[in-house]
Amino acid sequence: MATETTGETTTDNVTVRRTVTSSLDSVWGALMQPQGASALLGEGGELGNKGDAWKAADGTYGVTRSFHPQEQIRFSWHADEDAPATLVDLHMRAAGDGTELELVHDHLPADADRDWLTQHWDKALARIEEQAN
Fold first, then answer.
1. What CA dihedral angle connects 17, 3, 115 and 44, to 10 degrees?
2. How many CB atoms are closer than 10 A to CB 88?
3. Is the torsion defined by CA of 107, 79, 42, 122 positive or negative?
4. What's the half-sphere exposure (Cβ side, CA atoms, 13 Å) at 82?
5. E-assigned strands of 2-131?
6. pLDDT over threshold 80, residue 111
7. Strand, helix or coil at 105?
8. What is the DSSP letter of 33?
9. In what order do the strands lie in the sheet with 61-68?
10. Averaged pLDDT of the chain
11. Per-domain residue ranges for the chain?
12. pLDDT in tens, 11-47
């Protein structure tokens, strides 16, 4: 199975999908390690339980909103101290021997750079894939 990535944008959200060759167990295991959490949130970002705050070295920050092992992680995401809260929802499921990842970044303000966000999250999913291999 080859890695496949797709992305789409709407006025309210950005969606990035990637099918990776690693098993769901491997992907989840990678996300639960510091390098995997940093791959998703940014350097220094740490995933936590529902209600736990996180902050990355690049100034992005938020709070874990939902945490369902091997299914879903949802967290608020602020681009910086002055940015409005947006919501990122990462779903994962087994796909044969691999894993389908779908990340939706929702509640975007009208002036959000959707192209940049699509690239940002696509790179994050690629880093998660690297960590899972």
1. 90
2. 23
3. positive
4. 0
5. 4-9, 14-20, 53-55, 61-68, 72-77, 86-95, 98-106
6. yes
7. strand
8. S
9. 4-9, 14-20, 98-106, 86-95, 72-77, 61-68, 53-55
10. 89
11. 19-100+111-132
12. 689 999 999 999 999 999 999 998 889 999 999 999 8
- Domain 19-100+111-132, CATH 3.30.530.20 — does that match? yes
Residue carrying structure tokens 């940093």: 38
Q: What is the pTM of this model?
A: 0.86
Residue type at 60 in one-letter notation:
T
Dihedral angle, C-alpha 70, 89, 43, 97, nearest 10 °: 40
Q: Where are the alpha helices (DSSP H) in the chain?
A: 24-31, 34-41, 114-132
Reduced to 3 states, what is the DSSP secondary structure of residue 121?
helix
